Structure formats: structure tokens, C-alpha cells
């Protein structure tokens, strides 16, 4: 029985999808105005692990992950500049060219991390009609009002507005940001824009559309409400995003969707914790950010980063250091060596089956609020076990890797044919190199060559080949 921690109820709940046919899953995607950092990448990998776990447990998931390409201001509330415009000025291209450029970067990055693409990838600028319709419904039902500068959602009209965060409204506002309000006609500081007019500080907005109320552009929160409704319906099984979205973005999504549709918006709210550096959230504003490109440039395999992410539960913070990435890279290398060894020791295809005991353990880990670190431990248990034959081991490992996504099925046996003794010599040589004892390292290289193999130092690490 799958249990999921629901932010809305603050409890682990038994998972019951609306339909047996499909699980509807909305994930707040990136604002595509620059290269996402590896904190954002952690959010994507964690979502991927949850989607893969659901699929493994027999659910058919329809995942929608949006691209925000308009309306997300530099503060998560209604203040600051549109992030896409900021990107356009910086890169000296149009906002849509900025979006195209960074969507490409994002899609390559998540591909490198073996994150499965979403089934639906809605772009905000392609759903302006749906956003306007929802805003109109909210106006018609008296949940919204217009000022000279914008159409606002009236939070005093929403039922239990702060229930997701569990905060009282004053605290919610205090934590929502600077409290700066540039529209004196806003009734309440927490009221948020559904539609900004091309006026005031947005008089020079670069991306605007006609609307029944005047030229302008949508607010960030209405985008997700409208796109989720269009692609997944009025009530979703799962909605996921980072914990940073609880007090403002997701609180506002609930208020809009439930007020407009008159129905519960989401049954299970899932929130991933942050990747941190020196106990501070990895964020552009902190300056302590790293991109996947940087990690690749330093010679790391992107899957080493994925392996690192497997090591912490999605509701736990994870600290990033280069040492932990090194350790993850080494563990992945060890795992690959073990698996290639197992592969190369398989003599015939045989009639092996997956090991049911360990499969049950693996499932139990997933069913406990997607305990991936535990699931990874079960994978290692398979690798290390001497209780069953290689064929059974390999099948079980590859089956589990369907969730963990380390591409173990792509390992070639050529490297597996490297005898253990050669591998051990190469490992020793590496240790001497790290200690700076290059004479000793060279002696070992000679010994390896004498035995018919050559070692090569590549940016991806040491490669061993037959002479
Ligand atoms: P953004 O483009 O800023 O809207 O962020 C995209 C996603 O990445 C959101 O779901 C954020 O919650 C998430 N995110 C941002 N920073 C981090 C971080 N340091 N660790 C994990 N997730 C993050
Ligand atoms: Zn969203």
C-alpha cells in the first residue's frame, strides 16, 4: 500500500487516485530565463524518481510540467521585473528567444540526468486564452477585482486561504517577501495579480496580449492553475513543487482554482526540500550556484549527480559539496564495475527470475513515501548478495534501475572483461597518483601493460583497455 506525505494534511496518507486508469500529476516547471542550477535539477530528479516509482508500482502517470515564459516577476509576489524581460535585456534577444534558448538547455540537462520527459510540456504564452477565461470566471463570481494597474484575486474571499502553509495570514505575508506594494488600490497586501495591465511600472512590458479588460500579461500563479486545468482537469491527483512554493505560489494556485472551479484542486500536495550550500538554499540570489554544464566541464558524469540525489529523501534538505559529488561518483563507478562483472559472468541467458524477496523489500521502500535512499540500499543488497546466481542478480538489478535511472542496462561487458586483478592494479595506480607519487604510479602502469592492458586518463576518469 503506497503512502504519501501530503503537505495539505501534514500526514502520510494512503494513496488513492481519482481514476484507476491514470494518475494526473502536475509539476511546477522552470522559469526559462537562464540556465537552471543544480538545485533546480534536484527538484527535477526527485519528481522523476516519484513518477518512475508510481509507474513501477503499476500506476499509469500523466505528467505535465510547464514552462513559465511570462509573468514571473523577480520576486515571487507581484513586485519587480518580469524575469523573461530581464533575460531578454541581458542576452539582447527577444523574450521568446530567451525562452527557446533556455528550454533547450533545460531539456538537455534533464536528459543528461536521465529524467524522463513530461508527457505534456505546456508553455504559459500558449495558454493566454485559458488564463483569461479563468480570470473572467473569478471576476464574474466576485473573487477578483480590477484597479487601474491590474486584476487582483481577493484573498479575503477565498475559503481558508492559508491552509496549505498552515500559517496565519499576517505571517504568510511577512514571509512572502518585502511587503512592498506598488498599487495603492490593492485591497489587501496578499491580493495577487491575475492580470497586469501594460501600465505603471509595466508600461514598457515586452510581452503583452489583448484582453477583455485591457492590454497586459498574466500573473505567474494563474498560469499553473489554467494549464493544469486544461491538461489534467479540475481536480488533480498530485501536484508537486519545491517547499519554497508553499506560502505563495501554491497557496495562490489553490485559491484561484478552487474559487473558479468550485472543486477541490489537488488531492495530494508533494513538496521537495532544497539543495543547500553551507546551510543556505542554492539560489541565484545567494550567488552560490553551480550548473550541470560546470559539473560536466569538471569531468564529472551527470549520472554521478543523479546518484548523489538518490542519497537523500525528497523531504530532506541535501547539502552539496564537491566531496559528496566525488563520493557519489566513486560509488557509481563501483556499482558499474560490480554490474559489469556480474554481466560478464553470465554464461547463458537461462530462465532466471527476479528475486522476489528483495523485490518486496524494494517495493516496501517505495511505498513508504518514496524512500529512494532505502531503495538504493536494497539495490546494493542485490549486488553484494552471494545467495543467488548472476542471471537472477542482473535481472533484479536492471528491474530496480527502472526506478533509480542509472542506465545500468547500457553498461558494456567489454569493461567487464577487465580481470579483477587488473582493475585492482589500476585502482592502486590511481591512489598513488592522487598522493603525487608518480613513480610508483608509473611502475604499476608498466605492470598493467605487461599483463596486456593499457590505462588511459580521460576527463571521465580512468579507462582500461586490452592492448
Ligand atoms: P524556478 O525556476 O525558480 O521557479 O524553480 C523551478 C523549481 O526548482 C521549483 O520547483 C523550485 O522549488 C525548485 N528549486 C529552486 N531552488 C531549489 C533548490 N535549491 N533545491 C531544490 N529545488 C529548488
Ligand atoms: Zn506552478
Automatic annotation (TrEMBL):
Cofactor field: Zn(2+)
Coiled coil region boundaries: 325-352
Keywords: Aminoacyl-tRNA synthetase, ATP-binding, Coiled coil, Cytoplasm, Ligase, Metal-binding, Nucleotide-binding, Protein biosynthesis, Zinc
GO process terms (BP): cysteinyl-tRNA aminoacylation
Catalysed conversion reaction: tRNA(Cys) + L-cysteine + ATP = L-cysteinyl-tRNA(Cys) + AMP + diphosphate
Any one GO CC term of the record: cytosol
Co-factor remark: Binds 1 zinc ion per subunit.
PANTHER family reported for this sequence: CYSTEINE--TRNA LIGASE, CYTOPLASMIC, CYSTEINYL-TRNA SYNTHETASE
HAMAP family linked: Cys_tRNA_synth (MF_00041)
Protein name per UniProt: Cysteine--tRNA ligase
Organism: Candidatus Falkowbacteria bacterium CG10_big_fil_rev_8_21_14_0_10_43_10
Amino acid at each position: 500500500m503506497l503512502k504519501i506525505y501530503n503537505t495539505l494534511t501534514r500526514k502520510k496518507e494512503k494513496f488513492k487516485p481519482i481514476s484507476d486508469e491514470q494518475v494526473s500529476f502536475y509539476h511546477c516547471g522552470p522559469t526559462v530565463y537562464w540556465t537552471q542550477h543544480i538545485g533546480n535539477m534536484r527538484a527535477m530528479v526527485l519528481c522523476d524518481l516519484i513518477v518512475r516509482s508510481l509507474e513501477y508500482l503499476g500506476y499509469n502517470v500523466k505528467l505535465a510540467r510547464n514552462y513559465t515564459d511570462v509573468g514571473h516577476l523577480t520576486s515571487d509576489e507581484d513586485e519587480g521585473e518580469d524575469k523573461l524581460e530581464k533575460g531578454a535585456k541581458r542576452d539582447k534577444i527577444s523574450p521568446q528567444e530567451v525562452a527557446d534558448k533556455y528550454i533547450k538547455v533545460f531539456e538537455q540537462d534533464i536528459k543528461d540526468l536521465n529524467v524522463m520527459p513530461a508527457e505534456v510540456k505546456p508553455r504559459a504564452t500558449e495558454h493566454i486564452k485559458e488564463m483569461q477565461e479563468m480570470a473572467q470566471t473569478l471576476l464574474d463570481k466576485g473573487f477578483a477585482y480590477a484597479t487601474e494597474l491590474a486584476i487582483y484575486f481577493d484573498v479575503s474571499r477565498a475559503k481558508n486561504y492559508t491552509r496549505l502553509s498552515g500559517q496565519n495570514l499576517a505571517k504568510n505575508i511577512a514571509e512572502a517577501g518585502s511587503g512592498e506594494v506598488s498599487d495603492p488600490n490593492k485591497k489587501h497586501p496578499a491580493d495577487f495579480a491575475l492580470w497586469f495591465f501594460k501600465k505603471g511600472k509595466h508600461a514598457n512590458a515586452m510581452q503583452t496580449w489583448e484582453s477583455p479588460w485591457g492590454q497586459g500579461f498574466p500573473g505567474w500563479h494563474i498560469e499553473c492553475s489554467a494549464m493544469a486545468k486544461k491538461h489534467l482537469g479540475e481536480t488533480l491527483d498530485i501536484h508537486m513543487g519545491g517547499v519554497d512554493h508553499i506560502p505563495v505560489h501554491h497557496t495562490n494556485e489553490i485559491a484561484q482554482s478552487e474559487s473558479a472551479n468550485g472543486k477541490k484542486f489537488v488531492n495530494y500536495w508533494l513538496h521537495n526540500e532544497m539543495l543547500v550550500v553551507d546551510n543556505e538554499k542554492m539560489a541565484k540570489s545567494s550567488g552560490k550556484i553551480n550548473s550541470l554544464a560546470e559539473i560536466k566541464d569538471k569531468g564529472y558524469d551527470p549520472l554521478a549527480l543523479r546518484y548523489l540525489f538518490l542519497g537523500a529523501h525528497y523531504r530532506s534538505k541535501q547539502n552539496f559539496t564537491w566531496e559528496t559529488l566525488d563520493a557519489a561518483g566513486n560509488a557509481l563507478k563501483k556499482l558499474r564495475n560490480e554490474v559489469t562483472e556480474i554481466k560478464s559472468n553470465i554464461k547463458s541467458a537461462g530462465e532466471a527470475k527476479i528475486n522476489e524477496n528483495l523485490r518486496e523489500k524494494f517495493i516496501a521502500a517505495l511505498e513508504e513515501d518514496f524512500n529512494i535512499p532505502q531503495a538504493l540500499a536494497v539495490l546494493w543488497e542485490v549486488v553484494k548478495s552471494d545467495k543467488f546466481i548472476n542471471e537472477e542478480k542482473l535481472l533484479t538489478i536492471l528491474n530496480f534501475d527502472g526506478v533509480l535511472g542509472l542506465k545500468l542496462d547500457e553498461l558494456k561487458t567489454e569493461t567487464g572483461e577487465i580481470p579483477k586483478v587488473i582493475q585492482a592494479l589500476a585502482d592502486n595506480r590511481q591512489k598513488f597518483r592522487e598522493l603525487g607519487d608518480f613513480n610508483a604510479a608509473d611502475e604499476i602502469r608498466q605492470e598493467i601493460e605487461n599483463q596486456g592492458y593499457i590505462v588511459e586518463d580521460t576527463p571521465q576518469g580512468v579507462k582500461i583497455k586490452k592492448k
